Amino acid sequence: MEVNRDEAERCIDIATAALSNEQPEKAQRFLEKAQRLFPTEKAKVLLEMIAKNGFTPRGGHSDFNGQSGPRQRQPNSDDTRPEAKPSEKSYTADQLDSVRRIKQCKDFYQILGVQADASEDELKRSYRKLALKFHPDKNHAPGATEAFKAIGNAYAVLSNASKRLQYDQCGEEKTNPSSSGPENENFEADISPEDLFNMFFGGGYPSSSASMYANGRMRNQRRDRRERPREGGFALFVQVMPILILVIVSALSQIMVNSPPYSLSYRPSAGYTQKRLTMSLKVPYYVGEHFSREITGLNLKNLERTVEDDFISNLRNNCWKEKQQKEGMLYRARYFGDNDLYQKAQRARTPSCAKLSEITASLHG
């Protein structure tokens, strides 16, 4: 079907022009033809907007190159699956085929649709596209939840440098990425698919019916609570005892370990009441009352270097989070055609990134 891509794109362009000229019937014909030639998200979005909004795309289709407005399922004439029961959520034949494709993949690279030498940016772009497509609140085809988990697991492993190296070294011994078991646990994600999705898209889809992911399986929290048998006081004590032990051990370790000589807090705190600035980068930090007498000379210089290193490390982490949040908001705005969210994302500030750039410039200046 790759040979039909150009013709499908031409049909989409004609349909877009027809929508601008208030010719919805013509637009719909060319969009359906484009989907038959080479199915694309762009044509699907426009068809769904036409079906939902009575041939008038909400908020216009030109702001985001035809990708505006929330998308709903458009019935497909080629859908050969049995008619769903009224209580079941519908899905398209394309969604079902996509789920089957994911299940048939032999490794994580195939799942994400990238080459073995794909860069970090390529992994991110592929994950964003697939995560939105297979999210259980959007894709209701059988097996979509497992496919969504496989996509999240694939990205979590390949985006981790050490795990990716270990995975690549397995060669032919790689296990089926959709399977689970002791032989595959080295390549399990350290984060649940839903948490990974929320990290990228700043909240993403709402978690319906209080569902949650645990060890890769979706479990219903309310049902677990209803089915949990009542237990006696001793059983409750046995369950709570490990937590109590952890609290006690943590408290003892805090007593035995000496407190650090400084704090990077933005305001005075217990034991750190005296504000100071490092000599080189003027980084503010707080120390105790006897700091000036206890730490001087070379020790002070080394400590301030540590303060600045910690401060820059914190800035890098905060900058990364700010960029991820802003990038996720922009992507969601373009994908769902939310102009308000797009403007909000454009105005979003990244103070940690600005401060990091300022410090970097001063170090190289």
Automatic annotation (TrEMBL):
<feature type="domain" description="J">
    <location>
        <begin position="107"/>
        <end position="171"/>
    </location>
</feature>
<dbReference type="InterPro" id="IPR001623">
    <property type="entry name" value="DnaJ_domain"/>
</dbReference>
<feature type="transmembrane region" description="Helical">
    <location>
        <begin position="234"/>
        <end position="257"/>
    </location>
</feature>
<dbReference type="InterPro" id="IPR051100">
    <property type="entry name" value="DnaJ_subfamily_B/C"/>
</dbReference>
<dbReference type="GO" id="GO:0005789">
    <property type="term" value="C:endoplasmic reticulum membrane"/>
</dbReference>
<feature type="region of interest" description="Disordered">
    <location>
        <begin position="168"/>
        <end position="188"/>
    </location>
</feature>
<dbReference type="Pfam" id="PF09320">
    <property type="entry name" value="DUF1977"/>
</dbReference>
<keyword id="KW-1133">Transmembrane helix</keyword>
<dbReference type="GO" id="GO:0030544">
    <property type="term" value="F:Hsp70 protein binding"/>
</dbReference>
<keyword id="KW-0472">Membrane</keyword>
<dbReference type="InterPro" id="IPR015399">
    <property type="entry name" value="DUF1977_DnaJ-like"/>
</dbReference>
<feature type="compositionally biased region" description="Polar residues">
    <location>
        <begin position="64"/>
        <end position="75"/>
    </location>
</feature>
<dbReference type="Pfam" id="PF00226">
    <property type="entry name" value="DnaJ"/>
</dbReference>
<keyword id="KW-0256">Endoplasmic reticulum</keyword>
<dbReference type="InterPro" id="IPR036869">
    <property type="entry name" value="J_dom_sf"/>
</dbReference>
<protein>
    <submittedName>
        <fullName>DnaJ homolog subfamily B member 12b</fullName>
    </submittedName>
</protein>
<keyword id="KW-0143">Chaperone</keyword>
<dbReference type="GO" id="GO:0071218">
    <property type="term" value="P:cellular response to misfolded protein"/>
</dbReference>
<feature type="compositionally biased region" description="Basic and acidic residues">
    <location>
        <begin position="76"/>
        <end position="88"/>
    </location>
</feature>
<keyword id="KW-0812">Transmembrane</keyword>
<dbReference type="InterPro" id="IPR018253">
    <property type="entry name" value="DnaJ_domain_CS"/>
</dbReference>
<feature type="region of interest" description="Disordered">
    <location>
        <begin position="54"/>
        <end position="96"/>
    </location>
</feature>
